[in-house]
Amino acid sequence: MKLEYTYEQLLEKNKNYLWNPFTQMKTYLQDDPLIIARGEGIKLIDVKGREYYDGYSSLWLNAHGHNHPVLNKAITRQLDQIAHSTLLGSANIPAILLAERLVGITPDRLQKVFYSDSGAEAVEIGLKMAFLYWKYRGRPEKSQFLSMKNSYHGDTIGAVSVGGIDLFHQAFERLLFQTEKVAYPYPYRFQGSIEECVEVSLLELKQKLEEKADQLAGLILEPMVQGAGGMIVMPPGFLKEVEQLCRQYDVLLITDEVATGFGRTGRMFACEHEAIEPDIMTLGKKLTGGYLPVAATLTSNEIYEAFYGDFEEAKTFYHGHSYTGNQLGCAVALANLDLYEQENLIRHVQEVSQVAAQELRQVAELPHVGEVRQLGLMIGIELVQDRISKQSYDWKLGMGAKVCRKARDLGLITRPLDDVVTLMPSLVSTGPELQEMIAIIRQAIIEVTEA
Ligand SMILES: *Cc1c(COP(=O)(O)O)cnc(C)c1O
Q1: pLDDT digits 0-9 by tens, 361-372
Q2: Residue 185 and residue 237: Cα distance in Å, rounded?
Q3: What is the pLDDT of residues 163-197, one digit of tens each?
Q4: Which positions are annotated as binding pyridoxal 5'-phosphate (predicted)?
């Protein structure tokens, strides 16, 4: 591959051949499209040589920075052995070792690991497992799913079915399977106290379970923070209650930790904040430190055993992807987890989140900032037309997008979620780096909203 193309040449090829995901190509191609050439630590460098903070850690993936020598080495070492062999009917060394490792660090109930290549697939697998579990247990009527309004679980059809973001999901409605939905507590948009907000949400959940538990295979949710839904942080106590209700009504609890997992919220997994034990957990994103596409669905021995039997019983889990258990991916995931330990990364996230929280106070005071939400290094800044009335901007104004575009001019890349400006930096970001990133976002908000 020839490497020395000019920006203009690449842009022309981007325009002619490439369709970017979650991107309005018309807008993108008109506005100085960003073409990344390299990464160095927590920064991205584009083809024109401009340097930016990677404020979204390359879509919530990167843990230790880009171009990390230890992770690079883990891949090349594995490459000298083999890049890939299938996990369908055979196994490989890094996939086995990584499975053991994941079982060791996740809640006790989770004892088996099923791999895939993306968070959405991990969710599909979790749903299929839960569905078949009840079938094999002799209760096939428990076949539906309960999920949360405003949730995001990925973009494949099953994951969209349990998702609840109208802007992304409504267009596909007729393709989706039917699900039950309940509200996720969102105190900022609730008339009343946080406690009342929690109470109302729990009551709704309880009523739904009372009415439908006999038909429900599982409840799926994003524990502690709804990510793509706008970084909505769960009030304390809610998750624990949800777990108890699931147990009480015999509905499997599926926690989607694709975004929150691996230290993002200041704990290795968000489930730890409330010491809950899900029946199924989905992992992705930072599982490989942001290097390669590996995802995993973890489950209990009880669910695993429902599938375990003689060949003629036809209880084999007929699901798999070509690259499932990829050796390069699993090898870098193992090195990634070693780094978490060696660098005491969770402690680091806890410390620097405090620095971020302090810096965010100045953002929270701006006249067009409604709520600043944060759990660990998962940060969302909600823009509003008026902070007193909490009146939103017309979404067509694209205020979130405008602020992020301005931030890019000021040296930081991130993406908005509607009118929520997000900051999801690499976990190794230092206090001063976070201060600088937040100062850039603050400046961008001022320049756009007070123009
Ligand atoms: C990103 C995300 C997914 C989807 O993961 P992909 O790897 O993009 O398919 C699923 N669930 C949550 C909570 C996510 O944030």
Answers
A1: 999 999 999 999
A2: 11
A3: 998 877 788 999 999 999 999 999 999 999 999 99
A4: 119-120, 256, 321-322
Would you say 120 is a known binding-site residue? yes
pLDDT digits (tens, 9 = 90+) for 260-319: 999 999 999 999 999 999 999 999 999 999 999 999 999 999 999 999 999 999 999 999
Q: What are phi and psi of 98, to 5 degrees?
A: -70, -40
Q: What is the mean pLDDT of the chain?
A: 97
Å from CA of 54 to ligand 1 middle: 19
End-to-end CA distance of the chain: 45
Residue 256, ligand 1, Cβ within 6 A = yes
Ligand 1 atom nearest the C-alpha of 156 is 9
- Please calculate the CA angle 94-98-99 and round it to the nearest 5 degrees: 120
- Cα–ligand 1 centroid distance for 226 (angstroms): 11
Q: Which atom of ligand 1 approaches the CA of 226 most closely?
A: 13
Closest CA to 303 of 269, 262, 253: 253
Sorted by where each starts, the structural domains of the chain and their CATH numbers stand as 34-64+344-449 (3.90.1150.10), 72-342 (3.40.640.10)
Write the residue with the smallest CA distance to atom 6 of ligand 1: 119
Cβ of residue 284 lying under 6 Å from some atom of ligand 1 = yes
| CB 154 near ligand 1, within 6 Å | yes
Q: For residue 127, which of 216, 64, 199 has the smallest C-alpha distance?
A: 216
41-81 pLDDT tens trace: 999 999 999 999 999 999 999 999 999 999 999 999 999 99
Span 230-249, mean pLDDT?
97
Angle ∠(135,140,145) on CA atoms, nearest 5: 95
Please give the Cα distance from 172 to 151 (Å, whole number).
15
Task: Give the integer Cα–Cα distance in Å for 356 and 364.
Answer: 12
CA-based torsion, 355, 356, 359, 361: positive or negative: negative
415 is in an annotated binding site: yes
At 381 the pLDDT is 98
